[in-house]
Amino acid sequence: MTVTIARENAIAVVTVDNPPVNALSQALRQALVEAVAELDADAAVKAVVLICAGRTFIAGADVNEFGKPPQPPLLPDVVATIEGAKKPWVAAIHGSALGGGLEVALGCAYRVAVASASLGLPEVKLGIIPGAGGTVRLLRLIGSAAAVDLVTSGSPVGATKAEGLGLIDAIVDGDLRAGAIGFANGIAEKSLPQPISSRAVPAVEPGFWENAEKAVAAKAKREVAPLRALASVRKASETDFSDAMAFERETFLALRGSEQAAALRHVFFAERAAPRPPELAGITPRDIRSAAVVGGGTMGAGIAAALRDAGLPVVLIERDATAVERGLANIRAIYDGSVKRGRLTQEAADQRMAGVTGGDNYGLLADTDLVIEAVFEDLAVKRAVFEKLSSVCRPDAVLATNTSYLDPNAISEGVSHPERFLGLHFFSPAHVMKLLEIVLTEATSPEVLATGFALARQLGKIPVRAGICDGFIGNRILKVTRAQAERLLLSGATPSAIDAAMRAFGLPMGPFEAQDLGGLDIAAFQRKAARERGEIPFAPVAERLCALGRFGQKTGGGWYDYQPGDRAPKPSETVATVIAEEATGRPQHAWDEASIADAIILPMVNEATRILEERVALRSADIDLVKIHGYGFPRWRGGPMHYAEARGLAEVVAVLDRLAAEGLADPPCEGLRQAAQGDSFAAIAG
Ligand code: 3H9
């Protein structure tokens, strides 16, 4: 970390260089305080520019320091010192001014930024609130409504919007340093502006806070930080500066040590580690500049859109002209939807479509860098596709299957240069869902695996490496979720009680509502395939519902009944009768929300531990990312593995032992018992 001071005539330029993101470590905080003292004492200096080296302005407090007691100088004091400087400080922002970084900028007399910069207070995304005056100063600068928006959503705003809000004073065209020095020269002779801390609090309309509370509570659900952030902004509007600062700091410190903050920090670091697995360090991926998708159904169209969104030209291959037209229409429907929702301009949508070439001739793929197969889940069909690809594609083209349930080793039999083959398992809708399971076969080369990870970065996805087993990581755990849900049904819980318990746990939907939405036929098809492989899947009630033609919302009934045109699930007498028949002779239990959640989540953890033991996943944090980004597991719980560790693995083992004794779950696997001894999955994986 270095903080250097250069002089440009009467302007001092303080440059912070603390890679990678200029986070506010103790050393940086100390250096900033010293810089204020030095420049205050220098009569030749009329104004100060605060600028950062590297990719960004100060991106916030150093999250690595959050587990430790705060070391002086504390950030609120640093910001107060800058605000109290005798010379006007001008924050010169590029990249992101986030969290503590924006708080430092709010301590400055002025803020200027390049047009590409963004500014925000993302603390709620880490389960905390701003802790250095963000909630207290912001409303004095930009008004209560805009402050509430920024603080409770955690979403940053771009420089243009920031200028409109009054958050920055000017946008600098061209070189930031030169522009900021020019700006500083312009204000150097003026008297210092009133510090934000002593500006008046803007008035709000009656009912403003109550309405904001309702809106934030509805969105945050069980996440604690957004409402606490709102309370802090409200306090700032109702009391004096120093009381409001004390309230903010107290809330910040209390939340910093909370379970939700620990979980969200875990996810923050897991997401940043995911694209760069240590085992691929130093391996150069192949260049991907063009891509193709074989199969234009829902999945193929979504994958094509994801590739186009990343700027790659895409060829869509289907078996005949009619299917090509249908596939292109599926992609167009995705972009039409984005235009309708205001996410894309018509012009941008047209430009994305213009980059898709459809055809039924595999010869179009002769010079394509990457081909992703997304055809029907049938081994023979998929093999036939790869046979053709093997003969037309360049020998170094990467070939990928998007299979969910088939064995990629079997699919790749006969592929020429099998080291270039891998699984790229997208989640539906593929242009939206962040998760990408990257599945390696026995032959996949490290270079091709690295290409999968590089592609994920290009597409803005969260990549997780998965070994081969039925369902890979995510769907293998999903199978356990569903089997447990049925076990619960047979032992006295109703579908609506189970769904409600899982929503209360934090999932967006319970397992039965989710199946009704997606269709029960998909799982039925997979169970049929499993039976053909000699397995005995456990889904006695689902099997009977499928036999009755109850496939979910699309057939007017599944686990629930639906009225035409109404997606609200209604408890079904038919289903209750089937459950009662299947449950005959089985012991019945009284279930509450917590015990339902335990009987579903903890067996998932048990299965996930087996997945680690088998090295299908390499790290427990990877499993957390799979469940969060592919299946809606609540982020603030940190994923199932973090949840289990936070709860205590010894307790997890004890609950599973109890459930197993009653025939309600498998007993804990050896790996889980072993992990429980060290209370960490680190004992069996990273
Ligand atoms: C806060 O400020 C609280 C205050 O209100 C109160 C204090 C009293 N700390 O994302 P990237 C690392 S809360 C430590 O891949 P990009 C990251 O782990 C904080 N490390 O880069 C990674 O490490 P590695 C509020 C951090 O260019 C490397 O930097 N601020 C921090 O795609 C590169 O990260 C935030 O929440 C940090 N704060 O995106 C900002 N941030 O290379 C969070 C990053 O070893 N950060 N690292 O894997 C971001 O949103 C992005 O990093 C950013 C750059 C947009 C800045």
TrEMBL record:
It comes from the Bacteria. Its main location: other. The keyword Lipid metabolism applies. Pathway: Lipid metabolism; fatty acid beta-oxidation. Signal peptide: none annotated. It is found in: Peroxisome. Residues 291-466 form the 3-hydroxyacyl-CoA dehydrogenase NAD binding domain. Residues 471-562 form the 3-hydroxyacyl-CoA dehydrogenase C-terminal domain. It catalyses: a (3S)-3-hydroxyacyl-CoA + NAD(+) = a 3-oxoacyl-CoA + NADH + H(+). Pfam families: 3HCDH, 3HCDH_N, ECH_1. InterPro entries: 3-OHacyl-CoA_DH_NAD-bd, 3HC_DH_C, 6-PGluconate_DH-like_C_sf, ClpP/crotonase-like_dom_sf, Enoyl-CoA_hydra/iso, NAD(P)-bd_dom_sf. Keywords: Fatty acid metabolism, Isomerase, Lipid degradation, Lipid metabolism, Lyase, Multifunctional enzyme, NAD, Oxidoreductase, Peroxisome. This is 3-hydroxyacyl-CoA dehydrogenase NAD-binding domain-containing protein.
